[in-house]
Amino acid sequence: MQWLNRLERKFGNYAVPNLMTILVFGMALVFLLDTFTAANPDYEYYLSDLLYFDRDLIMQGQVWRVITFLFLPDGSSPLWIVFTLYFDWLIGKSLENQWGSFRFNIFYFIGALGSIIGGMITGFATNSYLNASLFLAFATLFPDFEVLLFFFIPVKVKFLGMLSGAVLLVSLILLPVPYKIAILISMLNFILFFGKEFYQKIKLFFWRRKNKTSWKNNHWWNDDDNNPFRK
What we know:
Elements: H1 2-11, H2 19-39, H3 55-59, H4 65-68, H5 78-99, H6 101-122, H7 128-141, E1 146-149, E2 153-156, H8 157-174, H9 177-186, H10 188-222
Antiparallel strand pairs: 1-2
Helix pairs in contact: 2-5, 5-6, 5-7, 6-7, 6-9, 6-10, 7-8, 8-9
């Protein structure tokens, strides 16, 4: 991560503190305004209709959509929105406390830039994969943190992270090419921050497996009781 250290020394003073708080507040505001317009028959459109990513509309001059899709909440149920926004805030604040504001900014903005680039290639973009990258980073750094699944079953976040990773992997295999591009580019931040660590863990796993197998084989042939050629 030498490149990150150099960037932090040079541009660390320009970091946006409490970035996740700003994002969550924006999502909550969009949800409340959508709820208000839904209850008012005088309004034909929701606020979110003006914010989602659409490459054609962006090329027609609605350039704000390049950024505003990041503030779209995931869901329409008030209870679900409260839960997801709180959890998103908890993840973001935990990562910021662990890394510092600058590194968290870099992680988030690389993911956001990847989502935007993917959107310009495929024609659409969502913040779902970006939020998934935040969750995977959280599960990697805080694997033993417990959440209440269905509000009463305690589950360590590392298992949910594994499940999320498996879902993304299956999506990469089964979904059409535009979705594959969107997922891969949106996960660029996670790959840059954790790719080397995971690669080393995989190498260590196979090294241990190989050496364990070799030991068992050597043990078998050196064991008089089990060696059939010595009977």
